[in-house]
Amino acid sequence: MNPLYHVGRYSQLMYRCFSKPQRVGVFFSQTLKEIDRLGVSSLFITLIVSLFMGAVLTIQTQNNIENPLLPDYTVGLVTRDTLLLEFCSMVLCLFLAGNIGSNIASQIGTMRISEQIDAMDIMGVNSANYIILPKIVAVVLYIPVLVVFSMFAGMLGGYLIAAFTDIITTSKFIYGLQYWFIEWYVYYSLIKAAVFAFIIASVSAYWGYFVRGGTLEVGKASTRAVVTCSVLILLADVVLTQILLL
Amino acid sequence: MIEVRDVCKSFVANELVLKHISTTFHSGKINQIIGRSGSGKTVLLKCIVGLHTLDSGDILYDGRSFTSMSKKEKMQLCSEIGMLFQGSALFDSLTITENVLFPMQMFSEKSEKEQQDRARFCLERVGLYNVFDMYPAELSGGMQKRAAIARAISLNPKYLFCDEPNSGLDPLTASKIDELIVELTKEFQMTTIINTHDLNSVLSVGEHIVFIHKGEKAWEGPKEKLFVSNCPELDDFIFASEMYQKFRTTLVSEQSGQI
User: Fold this and answer.
1) What percentage of chain B exceeds 90 in pLDDT?
2) Which pLDDT value is given to residue A68?
3) Residue B70 with chain A: CB contacts under 8 Å
4) Which residues of A fall within a CB distance of 8 Å from B108?
5) Does residue A178 have a pLDDT over 90?
6) Which residues pair with B7 in a beta bridge?
7) How far apart are CA A194 and CA A93, in angstroms?
8) Which residue, of A13, A139, A141, B210, is most buried by count of CB atoms within 10 Å of its CB?
9) Mean pLDDT, chain B, as a whole number?
10) Chain A contact set for B78 (CB, 8 A)
11) Which of A26, A116, A122 sits opposite B105 (nearest CB)?
């Protein structure tokens, strides 16, 4: 497997994908369908994951801050910043790479092996543009929205731990959540989410679009999509953190 | 009319899948490409419709060279082509009506009402009623083939390509699909090319037959000369089954009796 070969083929696919849609009305209706299919369906699981993520983060922070010099509200502050800086964007997107990424790869892969993509090509439809672009736009628009929900759900998870256990009082937790809030962290998280979303949609679509063979290959493409997306998300996280925060 | 001129195609260097194939497919006729599995029939069909690029040679659509066409001309040609795939290739996420509407929504300037009427006409023309809002997975194989034919003819194509239209169908349904293709070919005066290895289909609807063997055109001619081709590879292909072997014995004895 030559990485340069894949980079070249991926670039060509993106070039075909980012052309003007043949019918703008059809493109918008496809995008709305994809937002519903890929995004809205991920909302519930995002909320559940984020709720537990915030709860665990609160417990872990409290357990690891034994220093009497650190004020109690530090738990709320650390929970908030960890959620904003990494968990709600990077960890959530790693999770969504498995959920949405595999979905996109297997859907497009199935279309390829059942000759639906060939049928579009013969009709003169730019199949890359018709199939992939609405998915990319939908995912790039919707994952940041999921991240915002994830932020609230994560903090709610921490609050519930404070409310139902005695590790920290709710007033101190809320004070910590509000203490020294840096607005840029929210934007930073949303920018990262949009970049990760692009990686999830485009890379998964790439693996699905070039499937050759049968259903076994669709499964392999789905796995490759998740693995590649995860690695690229982590790589992009390093680069974006360097660019946006330092 | 479609002319195939000296077409070569390979997927791996120095291993030609199609070797210098030349032939002509006439309009208003049922042209059939026959051959054993893996002989290169589907590759030839996909080369003709432009899904595979040619190593060398050319395809002429009514005198228009496919290889030297501009992007705009190719788009125009695409709207003149209808294709029926082996597995129907209907879009899973669309209803049957939406499938038939799809090419019109992408290319036709007709109003929505006219498009809906046309879709309904095409579906009824292929004998599909009361399935308009169903999804492909809810239909039988034969009905899916009919729906795919309806989609293929929705833009009134000049050229119809069918890749193994009978595969996976029972003999009765298969013959009905064949009859439907013949009717539509005559009705719309299309150039129809059917890719098949179903001898029943060849004998019932075929008019001009091209036999492909190991990537080469081994024989070409009218259906009537299929049994007297003097092509050993074609004879092996045709008389592989016991039924046709018996038929050959009868044929030979009849001919000797006549002599």
Assistant:
1) 48
2) 83
3) none
4) none
5) yes
6) B21
7) 10
8) A139
9) 88
10) 122-124
11) A26
Cβ of A123 within 8 Å of Cβ of B87? The answer is no
Q: Which of B51, B89, B162 is nearest to A116 (CA)?
A: B89
* Partners of residue B105 in chain A, C-beta under 8 Å: 23, 26
Contact B8, B55 (CB under 8 A): yes
Q: Which residue has the tokens 């290895």?
A: B197
What three-state secondary structure class fits A165?
coil
A51-55, A121-125, A148-152 — which is least confidently predicted?
A121-125
Q: Are A57 and A50 spatial neighbours (Cβ–Cβ below 8 Å)?
A: no
* A198, two tokens: 């692009």
What local confidence, expressed as pLDDT, does residue B110 receive? Answer: 87
Q: Cα–Cα distance between B37 and B201 in angstroms, integer? A: 16
Of B91, B92, B107, the CB nearest to A124: B107
Q: What is the pLDDT of residue B255?
A: 65
Higher per-residue pLDDT: A98 or B169: A98
| Beta-carbon contacts of residue A70 (< 8 Å; ≥ 6 apart) | none
Q: Residue ranges of the alpha helices (H) in A83-214? A: 92-96, 102-113, 116-123, 127, 133-164, 170-178, 184-209
For residue A160, name the pLDDT band (cuts at 50, 70, 90). Answer: very high
Return the pLDDT at B257.
67
Contacts of A114 in chain B (CB under 8 A): 87, 89, 92
Tell me whether A32 touches chain B (CB under 8 Å).
no
Q: Give the chain A residue whose CA is nearest to the CA of B72.
A: A124
Closest chain A C-alpha to B82 CA, distance in angstroms: 7
Is there a contact between B91 and A116 if contact means CB atoms under 8 Å apart?
Answer: yes
A9 contacts chain B (CB < 8 A): no
A197 pLDDT tier (thresholds 50, 70, 90): very high
ipTM: 0.84
Cβ within 8 Å, pair A23-B105: yes
Confidence of residue A98 (pLDDT cuts 50, 70, 90): very high
Q: How far apart are CA B133 and CA B152, in angstroms?
A: 18
Residues 108-127 of A with CB under 8 A from B: 110-111, 114-116, 118-119, 121-125
CB B138 within 8 A of CB B90: no
Q: Which backbone phi and psi does B221 adopt, to 5 degrees?
A: 170, -175
Give the pLDDT score at A35. 94
